[in-house]
Design goal:
Length: 236
């Protein structure tokens, strides 16, 4: 059994009371992968450092590979053995959070668009439409990569948990639309920028895995009719 977990988003009027917990399967594996990838894009505290340096994130992602509805290899490099918590945190901050005039690789989708405000407004419309709002505890902008991945985690979970084929199909189509309009559009630009820097292999491989997963998952969604996906969810 599997329940969703959100950090950057809160459930407002999403109507999850009485929602069944889906059994393990392809859609649940997709949802878990989005949540796991999202967890890698926050300033690593000591607990996160322990999980990353101990290989727990990579092991959890690899555990889902066999359940995915397509072949995929995450191929994320381990955190260097010589890295301390301070080292990993400093590298994250250097790449994604701080710098003269802004970080070299900001994790905010709107920064990579022509109009950030318009981009953030569009993201919020997606969240609000599905009954979600920004977390009061974790105050980060709505266009942060971790939050966008969490949203896909939520949509995929709702698809898997839907007992009505029509609802499952709606979540299926929403995933396609959101990937195309948001992370699928700007994550490749972020990856290209990061590839041009002298960055720790863990972060470059994590972003590479994220970019490739978005492409693979989008292809799966497009190639799988929403009705077929909905029927599979309803049978779980």
């Amino acid at each position: 059994m599997f329940g969703f977990s959100l950090v950057g988003l809160d459930i407002g009027d999403a109507g999850v009371d009485g929602l069944k917990e889906p059994e393990d399967g392809p859609e649940v594996a997709r949802s878990k992968c989005y949540a796991l990838l999202a967890s890698g894009y926050s300033v690593p505290d000591e607990e996160q450092f322990r999980r990353l340096s101990g290989g727990e994130l990579m092991a959890a992602l690899d555990e889902q590979r066999g359940e995915l509805p397509y072949e995929f290899d995450f191929a994320i490099e381990p955190v260097p053995a010589e890295f301390s918590h301070d080292d990993l945190q400093a590298e994250f901050l250097r790449l994604f959070e701080v710098g003269a005039g802004g970080p070299p690789c900001p994790l905010y989708g709107g920064v990579w668009s022509a109009d950030r405000m318009k981009s953030m407004e569009e993201v919020m419309r997606f969240y609000n439409y599905f009954g979600l709002k920004l977390s009061d505890e974790r105050r980060i902008p709505p266009d942060h990569l971790a939050t966008e991945l969490e949203f896909l985690h939520y949509l995929t979970f709702r698809q898997a948990a839907s007992s009505l084929a029509q609802m499952a199909a709606s979540y299926h189509r929403a995933q396609i639309d959101f990937i195309e309009r948001q992370p699928g559009r700007w994550v490749p630009k972020l990856k290209e920028r990061l590839d041009g820097l002298d960055a720790a292999a863990f972060f470059t491989s994590l972003l590479d895995a994220t970019a490739r997963f978005l492409v693979a998952d989008h292809e799966h969604l497009v190639e799988t009719p929403a009705s077929a996906s909905a029927s599979a969810s309803a049978e779980q």
